[in-house]
Specification:
The chain has 239 residues and is α/β, with parallel strands linked by helices. The chain has a single domain, classed as 3-Layer(aba) Sandwich (Rossmann fold). It is 44% helix and 16% strand. The protein has eight helices and seven strands. The chain binds NADP nicotinamide-adenine-dinucleotide phosphate (NAP).
């Protein structure tokens, strides 16, 4: 049986694109989702296997790992794309909840899934297996208004380095750090223009450049512990 490429957070946008493109390129994709969306239906119609889980507690994440171990023997790669993105709430009690939510999805889920499937991640003669964390350029140059988001993504960036040391030589662990690839509804026209003005390549990059970075990491047998910014250069000039 072909080894799976597990992609998390495939219900929409970047994750959906990654799952479709990996499938097109001949990988056996296992697409994780939380919400049942048109995107998930689209994946299922393409014949892509899907699996549901909410990464909202240690218990739920451990249950997800147990299901993966029970039902799948081998993984070629794991792409951690699932994420929550909102500005830090000014109400402290709300911020505490937000911290917990972001910690589970950006840090605990990748850690438990990686650790729990380490012995199931298998490369071949030419290639180690791959773990790829989708982080954010905010991990290194934070936006204060999004500090809970940014600090938990920074934790994921640090995990990339720690696990690259821990999981070699059989598994490479790398990160892709997007900048403005897909705006959200919360980005007003003014914010979009301001972001473009401080992006040397002056456009919204789209999901495909994220896929190209993921694929280049998977194709390269001698890269581990690196982070590729996919940001049109925004990290250089972002305030
Ligand atoms: N878009 C950008 O320009 C940009 C910029 C920098 C970094 N990034 C990073 O790139 C990745 C993709 O970005 P995006 O904009 O496509 O993200 P997105 O639209 O926010 O989608 C996030 C995905 O994660 C899932 N998810 C959220 N919380 C979850 C939970 N508790 N358990 C399981 N799944 C959960 C969502 O599922 P539901 O459908 O159920 O909500 C959704 O499928 C993210 O890691 C993001 O941080 C993106």
């Amino acid at each position: 049986m072909q080894k799976k490429v597990l992609v998390t957070g495939t219900s929409r946008r970047v994750g959906l694109h990654l799952a479709k493109r990996l499938h097109e390129d001949g990988y056996a994709v296992l697409a994780h989702y939380r919400s049942q969306t048109e995107g998930v239906q689209e994946l299922q119609k393409l014949g892509i296997e899907t699996i549901a889980a909410d990464f909202d507690s240690g218990e739920h994440i451990l249950d997800f790992v147990a299901r993966l171990r029970r039902d799948y023997q081998g993984f070629r790669a794991i792409i951690h794309n699932a994420s929550s993105f909102t500005p830090t709430d000014e109400d402290l009690a709300q911020a505490a909840q937000q911290y917990e939510q972001f910690f589970y999805v950006h840090m605990m889920a990748p850690f438990l899934i990686n650790q729990g499937l380490q012995d199931r991640l298998q490369g071949d003669d030419e290639q180690p297996a791959d773990i790829i964390h989708i982080t954010d350029i905010n991990a290194e140059n934070p936006t204060p208004r999004f500090d809970i988001y940014g600090t938990t993504k920074a934790g994921l960036h640090n995990m990339t380095l720690a696990l690259a040391k821990k999981f070699g030589p059989s598994i490479k662990v790398n990160a892709v750090a997007p900048g403005p690839v897909l705006f959200t509804e919360s980005h007003t026209d003014a914010v979009r223009q301001a972001m473009m003005a401080e992006t040397p390549l002056a456009k919204e990059g789209g999901a495909e450049p994220v896929y190209l970075a993921v694929k280049s990491l998977m194709d390269n047998p001698f890269l581990t512990g690196v982070s590729i910014p996919v940001d049109g250069g925004r990290r250089l000039s972002k305030g």
